[in-house]
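Module 6 notes. Inverse folding takes a fixed backbone as the condition and produces residue identities as the prediction. Think of it as a translation problem where the source language is geometry and the target language is the twenty amino acids. Below is one complete input and output pair. Work through it position by position during the lab.
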């Protein structure tokens, strides 16, 4: 069972895909489109992560963030916004947010951020179930660990692993990996993906992890945990 997530976003075109994606990953998701109802929503049910848009129709998201902290909310707050300046980022974190994601963002990256926040705050969530596997992703630092030992990955290897981890135990189609990691307009050979997967698979195995990148012929790839033999 995943954690509980509250999405605070007034744009339906952004909120609906976000909610559907999180629900498919096992989270209990609620959605509201304004700032006024946030405190009531958090007070009525246990919320592990608040995904908070800054540009709400009735009040500034930074004020909502401050109000949540002043009310005693101790869960995670992930700000998503089109504001990209360093000053806005600093102000957002100073207002009590735990993390900051600029629009536009990939759903896989957002999912990874949510899992990282759940792990960091000690809350429920699907990421915690993977901690015992030894594989650990630090999304903010873009670093990967096998236990306490860092695995050196290239930028593309890290991005591929992030997408696979976001859909752990599920097949990610080749086309989706190409569009999310490279570009939807990529015209190069898809062998680039195979080479990257091959290097990533080798590095995970070399680190002694039981996590494997499995190829599903004609479809895509799946990240799964395999039990040791014997």
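Target side of the pair, the amino acids:
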């Amino acid at each position: 069972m995943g954690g509980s997530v509250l999405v605070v976003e007034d744009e339906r075109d952004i909120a609906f895909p976000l909610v559907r994606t999180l629900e498919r990953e096992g989270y209990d998701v609620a959605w509201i489109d304004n700032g006024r109802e946030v405190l009531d929503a958090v007070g009525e049910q246990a919320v592990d992560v608040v995904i908070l848009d800054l540009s709400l129709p009735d009040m500034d998201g930074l004020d909502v963030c401050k109000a949540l902290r002043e009310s005693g909310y101790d869960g995670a707050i992930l700000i998503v916004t089109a504001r990209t300046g360093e000053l806005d980022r600093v102000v957002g974190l100073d207002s009590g947010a735990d993390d900051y994601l600029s629009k536009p963002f990939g759903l896989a990256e957002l999912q990874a951020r949510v899992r990282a926040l759940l792990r960091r705050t000690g809350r429920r969530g699907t990421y915690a179930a993977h901690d015992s596997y030894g594989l650990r992703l630090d999304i903010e630092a873009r670093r990967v660990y096998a236990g306490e030992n860092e695995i050196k990955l290239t930028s593309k290897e890290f991005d591929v692993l992030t997408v696979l981890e976001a859909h752990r135990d599920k097949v990610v189609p080749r086309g989706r990996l190409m569009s999310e990691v490279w570009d939807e307009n990529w015209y190069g050979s898809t062998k680039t993906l195979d080479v990257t997967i091959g290097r990533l698979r080798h590095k995970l195995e070399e680190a002694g992890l039981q996590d494997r990148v499995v190829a599903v012929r004609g479809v895509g790839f799946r990240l799964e945990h395999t039990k040791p033999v014997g």
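Reference fact for the lab report: Residues 191-206 form the longest helix (16 residues).
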